[in-house]
Automatic annotation (TrEMBL):
It is an enzyme of class 4 (lyase). It comes from Nakamurella leprariae. GO terms for biological process: propionate catabolic process, 2-methylcitrate cycle. The lineage of its organism: Bacteria, Bacillati, Actinomycetota, Actinomycetes, Nakamurellales. Involved in the methylcitric acid cycle. Catalyzes the cleavage of 2-methylisocitrate to yield pyruvate and succinate. This is Methylisocitrate lyase. It catalyses: 3-hydroxybutane-1,2,3-tricarboxylate = pyruvate + succinate; (2S,3R)-3-hydroxybutane-1,2,3-tricarboxylate = pyruvate + succinate. The gene is prpB. The keyword Magnesium applies.
């Protein structure tokens, strides 16, 4: 009720402790505050905030068109409504070294627990699309060092994402990852790996936590949590899953209304008003403020 019960600092410490535990952490992607609340209710370890999802919500492709302000504002709304750790996609950091440092501080102020920066050139694009271009390793090291220097809370997690597997090959991606760790990255996000052998190579090569991206319709097979844990992965994100589920259901519902002239045929697929009120915690608000106690919860 009234948002997160844990402070941002507490959530960051919890994230650090969970990463040190060695177990696999599952971070589904939230497309708004309500979906983040559902993720927490279902018992997941954290919430991921995807740049692709935020772009799509604005009606934009994932090609670096969102601004730091747009992403930080939405990320803050999500973070304040869950006591789980939250990790956000910071694209390329929105500028040069000073901008990257400011981006880190902006997300700290927004209550986030960590972010990832990638080694693509601007304008960046979805990691599972063709035609990606990378900055040099030296330029990416500048980004990472700027992020580390800008960080004020040492528990805030800075993750370095490399898209080099699809551009320069596996060996080059591993070399980049090692250099990123040496520059201060707390975790490595290896994008668009094509099989278990790739993860095994990365796990043997770097001694910091690894993040795996289980996005649908991409280059990486959809491994189970057990398989990822056995590979030594520490965090798995499902960045667009909830948005795709919601949009698929919305599209089907609109088609039903258009063809049948009523939504009656899809009512049984909807979240009920009662269930929505439970998720939002109406009873807790009524207990907190008696003036709210006269609302009526419909059963449907």
């Amino acid at each position: 009720m009234l948002g997160a019960t844990a402070t941002p600092a507490e959530r960051r410490r919890a994230f650090r402790e969970a990463l040190a535990s060695g177990r696999l952490l599952q971070f589904p992607g939230a497309f708004n505050a309500l979906s983040a609340m559902l993720i927490a209710e279902q018992g997941f370890d954290g919430v991921y905030i995807s740049g692709a999802v935020l772009s799509a919500e604005l009606g934009l492709p994932d090609v670096g068109m969102t601004t730091a302000t747009e992403v930080s504002q939405r990320a803050a709304t999500i973070a304040r409504n869950t006591s789980l750790p939250t990790m956000v996609d910071a694209d390329t950091g929105w500028g040069g070294p000073v901008n990257v440092a400011r981006t880190v501080q902006t997300f700290e102020d927004a209550g986030l627990s960590g972010l990832h920066l990638e080694d693509q050139e601007d304008p960046k694009r979805c990691g599972h699309l063709e035609g990606k271009s990378l900055v040099s390793t030296d330029d990416m090291l500048i980004r990472i060092r700027a992020a580390v220097r800008g960080r004020r809370d040492p528990d805030f997690v800075i993750c370095a994402r490399t898209d080099a597997r699809a551009v320069e090959g596996l060996d080059a991606a591993i070399d980049r990852a090692k250099a990123y760790v040496d520059a201060g990255a707390d975790m490595i996000f290896v994008e668009a790996l094509t099989g278990k052998a790739d993860y095994e190579r990365f796990r043997a090569a770097v001694d910091v936590p690894l993040l795996a991206n289980m996005t649908e319709f991409g280059k990486t097979p959809l491994f189970t949590a057990t398989e990822l844990a056995d590979l030594g992965v520490n965090v798995v994100i499902y960045p667009v899953t909830l948005l795709r589920l919601a949009m698929g259901a919305a599209e089907a519902g609109l088609a039903e209304i258009r063809s049948a002239g009523t939504q009656q045929g899809v009512v049984d697929r909807m979240q009920t008003r009662k269930r929505l009120y439970e998720l939002l915690g109406y009873d807790e608000y009524a207990t907190f403020d008696a003036r709210l106690a006269n609302f009526r919860k419909e059963e449907s």
